Amino acid sequence: MNEIAFLPIAAEILLLAGAVLILMAAVTLNLGPRTWAIIAGITLGLSFLVAWVQWWRIDDVGANFHYTGDFLRTPMVVMDYFSVFGGGLVIAAGGIALLGGWRLVGSLEKRGAEYVALVLLAVAGLHIMVISANLILMFIGLETASIALYVVAGFTREQPDSDEAAIKYFLLGSFASALFLYGIALSYAATGSTSIYGPSGILAFFRTNIPEPGVLLIGIALMIVGLGFKVSAAPFHQWAPDVYQGAPGAAVPLMASGVKIAGFAALARVLTVAFGASIADWAQVIAGLAALSVVVGTLFAIAQSDFKRMLAYSGVAHAGFMLTALVAGQSGVPGLWFYLGTYAFQLIGTFIIASIISGAAGGASPLDAYRGLAKRSPVLAGALALLMLAMGGIPLTAGFVGKVGVFAAAIDAGYLWLAIVGLVSAVAGLYFYLRLIVLAYFHDPDPALADVPITAPRSTRLALAVCVSFTLLFGVLPWPLLNLTSEALPLAGLLP
Amino acid sequence: MPSFPAIALLVLLPAIGAVVVALLPKSRRELVLPITTAISMLPLAVALYILWEFSAADGAAFQFSETVTWYEPWGIGWNVGIDGISLLLIVLTAVLFPLSILASASVTKDVKMYMVSMLLLETGLLGVFVSLDLLLFFVFFEMTLVPMYLLIGIWGSENRVYAAVKFFLYTAFGSALLLTAIVALAVMHGNDSGTLSFAFQDLLGLEISSNAQTWLFLGFGVAFAIKVPLFPFHTWLPDAHTEAPTAGSVILAGVLLKLGTYGFVRFNLTLFPEATVRFAPWLAGLAVVGIIYGAAVAIVQPDVKRLVAYSSVSHLGFIVLGTFALTSQGLQGSVIQMVNHGLTTGALFLLIGMIYERRHTRQISEYGGLASVMPLYAGVFLFMAFASIGLPGLNGFIGEFKILLGSYLAFPVMAILAASGVVLAAIYLLWAYERMFTGPVTNSANTGLKDLNAREITILVPIALLIVLLGIYPKPALDRIEPAVENIIERIEEATDHESPDFGRIHDLPAATGEHSP
Known about the structure:
Radius of gyration of chain B: 22 Å
Mean pLDDT of chain A: 88
Low-confidence stretches of chain B: 514-518
Number of helices of chain A: 21
Shape of chain B: globular
Largest sheet of chain A: 2 strands, antiparallel
Helix content of chain A: over 70%
Distance between the termini of chain B: 44 Å
Strand order of the largest sheet of chain B: 1-2
Largest interface: A-B, 29 and 35 residues
Largest sheet of chain B: 2 strands, antiparallel
Helix content of chain B: over 70%
Number of helices of chain B: 22
Oligomer: heterodimer
Number of strands of chain B: 2
Order of helices and strands of chain A: HHEEHHHHHHHHHHHHHHHHHHH
Number of strands of chain A: 2
Low-confidence stretches of chain A: none
Number of domains of chain A: 1
Structural class of chain B: mainly alpha
Distance between the termini of chain A: 15 Å
């Protein structure tokens, strides 16, 4: 059985080929950054098509494994609905983020090729995290994505903020990666495998043995810490505000949303599938982290005077809401997916607005810059208001449906207290989302800025329109996405 | 029953109208007001049609029902219907909107967005009253929040941002608890029967333990108590009312507050009968505190709009008292009083808005002797004040009388205390009238004021007619309310050992002795 199934890893192949092609061609040809971005866009588009094909394929023949029967008869990669949905989401987020950051790419001139290649590599790494059925491969995906994003964070070298962001992200990020790796090592020590599925995988081990509890628990805890850092859950969130604020504005959407998607996908796969048997041990921890994230994120966000920092802390709170769904184990996965999928687009849309206001390469975005936005640009103000309401979880936006799904999962799993903590924080959170609407609509613009036109390239506007219409569409008619997410469950059994 | 979806039409027409208004060209600003007024007449027409077709004999049943499943796994659907309790509130909403839109002629800032907010608000409010799916109810309940927030925050007076944010956060806090309780109910249904359901009719059949009823009652109750607002959750109301533009105040007092009292009647009483019986004395007590406190604070207000706002706290206290008396008379009184309060307080806010447009002040001390300058205005004001006080022959009387009657049967002491609210109402309103209208003109700025114009008379006449009609001949309204109310009382009596007190008859006396619990 040495056959290699290419379909499960077709997206990675495409993305890596695209990145390599761009880097090689850029050595000799000077086609201008826009060309590179278009090539990258086509690559992402093709990879997204692959996700569709994969979905149909699973409909036909069921979930497929890659490298079946070769490496200790355990699969490295799994193509189930979960991988395909999560992978598609990562690619879509990457594509929209790239489209929204068009202006940054255009301004980079010769270095544009590097930038888009790094974006493709990051997306490939994130995609690997989602589809991997082996903890080591998951770590490789994590590192691929992280290293690419460390570079992206510091890409505008001439700005000290950007350098600071990159260094901070790198130091804390590699520390978290190390913890994750150590967690994998300990769980290997306890179970004898780094693979999840297969006859010698973790699931098979749990079927017949009771592991050494201490070692396993420390391993799981370290993995939670490592991934908790990546998704910026409290108390591992300290890097997020500085990085979101310092990194080039147009690059933040991918860092913020893509990493969250892949991080949560990895967390869901590791916890609910691989260690689903010891849910009683980790669910308490996740519930604690969720409550802490929600409260800490909300409280700190209230105190911010910079929009991007506020978004970073609100992202901590949102990570808490998503962790809330995870306490329900497998049955929380659809709720998690819906929240993650819709939040990713809200976040990208919001950061696109922030980068329109404060410049594609720029860092700081003081809240005062949004004063009287409704007078300066009614469309942008309307989009901002809608996205803020969605993040606050107001009905008829996707944010509301997401919150209902998450809290229903938690209540169903018996965590009523967590749902109440979450909902009360969500209300407190409205305070800072509303503040943007207050500034944009209830105040007059700064006289110095009143007549400064707000411009954005057509592609950026298109990306923003996509994010806003997704938010509204899935708020009013969430059923198609709900159906999709309720199917997008990870494989939970042994080998077929 | 009609062959077309009347309710869907009723709820969606304003929303469609909002889109139409939003698409009007910027250059034709003068068209916005007439077109919006015309659009708001459409839901009124549908509401009148529903009123006409509504079968009073089946007042307890949900009529005009429409059910479309949206998402099977969550048990959510467009599940709507109208019974005797919601019928009049729907008509009230549909009546007040065209009038308050017509009263917004002085709005100049961003008229289009103002009208869009108003129409979306109407969709939300109508949606709340027709929803029988709890999640749908919640969606509409929340949908009213954003337009009202914008109305206060953009078109309000000086301190508007503070008032708008306070309003939003207060009510959103209640909503969070409400949502938790709603989802918990659906999950309980799921554990019981295997499928989640948010449908009111399904949830009525749910067996809920006494302990769970307590918590769920509190989850729903706090949300509604904030909305009503019941003492001590009332502090957002005076700010919001005072700062809101005229139409905002009218809708806020006329309809939005009724979401709370309606929610109590519709959901708390029916879904959690045991908890209702347990909490009834406490809520009635809070209501009485609100009646007296609201009235007492109203007396000393120097700002006439704030005065009417506090009078709402007092009047809404009556409605809650009538509800939790758990008697047929009390509940009937509560439901009809929701409509009455909407009409009279709405009219008072309209009147205050009209004088504010002329003088740009709400301070009572700035006025004086207006009756000689604006006799018609003064007459209408006095008429509305009398209706608000509850003068027999006008609408306020019948509601308060029924409430006091019903609550006397259940809580005699509280009813007696509450009755003092009627006296206090006479004091604060008539004293305000005296200071504003009687005597010689004291402030020279008031000498040249113009009396009501044709547009303003057009706005006030329909309300005055309804006030007289409901005051003299409330029977058609009560006939529609009674079966629905009886149904609720019966349900409570079946589910608990509570017995709703009623009048004895002379020949029942020997048998009844000892049976009647106090």
